[in-house]
Design brief:
18% strand; alpha/beta; globular; 6-stranded mixed β-sheet; 7-stranded mixed β-sheet; 508 residues
């Protein structure tokens, strides 16, 4: 593994999102002096928060898995997750609603999950699920340590025997075709292949490698931090500060001062302050941050294929009684009648889904304190094309986007959300772009094969500039952000020799 050359005593980390915070914790835990710069008023990055009229809305990720990786991050400074953060289990992990009116509750107990699939889809599908669960365990065992949880310097850095093992498992087939090897009911197929959206690629195109996303929930479940998702970066921030990280919010890094050979010497802030550094970590989107910070664009950054984007609509409404048919689960995935056609709409044709599949989350089901008494807060997420892929006539203004959301909600029985006097807030791809997301997508570079593993943007530039976050290895999502932060730190400190995480569900 290549590492930063020379002294690494003083490190400046740019960006206090989850990846930047994780990087800072691993570095300070290894004895480095760390200054963490954040251009916004508070840390958190995409895991932000919107507060209105007693409602606390997360305006970023809504699904939290892999508690072992959170524990690993706190353990870098000798702490335990429970000392800083309470993780509430989300049960069921999500409720899938199908166009024929049937529902399936996804749970992380494999026996209970098989029984639930058998209830809806029959004994044959239940048996198929058991075989699929075995495949996921085998895939994780073959993939995690060798292809996710390590720094990779290029294709020849991969172990041929482990690569052969993945090929034998069928990991390089499409996710959907691999799922169909075990499951045949269209509802079950959708249930275990919609996770491709998190990778930014349609299920019939993304590699089965990314079925590890499904494994993350099945291994340890889905959680909500008490206080909402934003509580996670706040807890990491508190730990970082207590262990000596100097966090400077409302401080924008303007450029990285380099030598003639490209070695970073200091970070210059927008106020003109010079912060000397032995190494610099850029925990921000490379295609957005690097041109500004270094005055140049990495050559292949112009050829990046970006994931689809989304509309995020936040609202508050009265909570239905538990016996009411409208009472939601915490996470509710609604599948339209169309499947491939829906993905073709947003990925191939650059238009809104004509028969949308979407997510409705009601985190107050798990943590009622996020809204006034008797109320729910709702997060409605509808996938859309990103701004580079979208057709020029696709509506992007807030009002037409809101109309699209309203029509989808009415079709699926959420009319009561439209009659509320509670707060409402819409985030469109244009808003994501204004928040620094390239192509207007919070999901970053799509996980196509040529943007996976050794082919994704390297996290080490030159002698002493390191990247962390969704734009580099291993990729998008909260678990990947935490791993990315640790891998970035290892580029500076060298490999960690202490015990490593046993699994996404395990502890350090």
């Amino acid at each position: 593994m290549r590492t930063v050359r020379g002294s690494t005593d003083d490190v400046v980390v740019i960006g206090a999102g989850l990846a930047g915070l994780a990087t800072a914790l691993h570095l300070v835990g290894a004895g480095r002096s760390v200054t963490l710069l954040e251009q916004n008023e508070e840390p958190g990055g995409k895991a932000g928060r919107f507060v209105s009229d007693g409602y606390a809305f997360d305006n970023g990720p809504t699904v939290l898995t892999a508690p072992g990786l959170i524990q690993q991050t706190f353990a870098a400074v000798g702490e335990d997750t429970a000392d800083r953060l309470e993780l509430l289990p989300v049960e069921p992990m999500y409720r899938a609603h199908f166009h024929d009116g049937s529902t399936i509750d996804a749970v992380n107990d494999p026996h209970a999950m098989a029984a639930e699939i058998g209830r809806v889809c029959g004994a044959r599908e239940a048996a198929g699920f058991r075989r699929f669960a075995t495949f996921l365990e085998q895939l994780y065992a073959a993939e995690y340590r060798h292809f996710i949880d390590r720094n990779i310097d290029g294709p020849f850095d991969l172990d041929p025997s482990e690569l052969a093992r993945l090929i034998a498992l069928g990991a390089f087939r499409s996710m959907e075709s691999k799922v169909r090897q075990y499951l045949h009911d269209p509802r079950a197929v959708r249930l275990f292949s919609f996770q491709a959206l998190y990778a930014g690629v349609a299920p019939h195109h993304v590699r089965a490698l990314y079925s590890v996303i499904t494994y993350m929930g099945m291994a340890a479940g889905v959680f909500l931090p008490r206080g909402g998702m934003h509580a996670l970066p706040l807890a990491l921030t508190a730990a970082a500060r207590d262990h000596g990280v100097v966090l400077r919010c409302s401080t924008k890094a303007e450029r990285i001062e380099t030598s003639l050979h490209g070695t970073a010497r200091a970070v210059i802030t927008s106020a003109g302050e010079r912060l000397p550094a032995d190494a610099v970590v850029v925990a921000a989107e490379p295609s957005v941050a690097l041109p500004r910070l270094l005055g140049r664009t990495r050559l292949h950054a112009r050829r990046i294929s970006y994931a689809p984007s989304c509309l995020l609509w936040l609202t508050g409404a009265p909570a239905p009684e538990p016996s009411d048919d409208r009472a939601p689960a915490h996470h509710n995935v609604h599948f339209g009648a169309s499947w491939r056609g829906a993905f073709d709409d947003i990925v191939r044709d650059g238009r809104l889904m004509r028969d949308p599949s979407f997510l409705v989350s009601a985190p107050t089901v798990t943590d009622p304190a996020l809204a006034p008494v008797g109320q729910h807060n709702y997060h409605v997420v509808l996938p859309t094309p990103n701004l580079k892929a979208s057709h020029q006539n696709m509506p992007m203004d807030s009002e037409r986007c809101a109309d699209y959301v309203r029509r989808a909600l009415v079709r699926h029985g959420y009319e009561h959300l439209l009659r509320t006097a509670g707060p409402q807030h819409m985030i469109t791809p244009l808003d994501w772009e204004r928040r620094g997301c390239p192509a207007g997508t919070p999901f970053g570079a799509a996980h196509t094969l040529r943007q996976t593993g050794p082919f994704r943007t390297s996290n080490l530039l030159g002698d002493n500039i390191v990247l962390a976050g969704a734009g580099t290895h291993p990729g998008v999502g909260i678990p990947m952000a935490l791993i990315s932060g640790r891998l970035a730190a290892q580029r500076i400190t060298g490999p960690v020799t202490s015990s490593t995480v046993r699994s996404w569900a395990g502890a350090t």
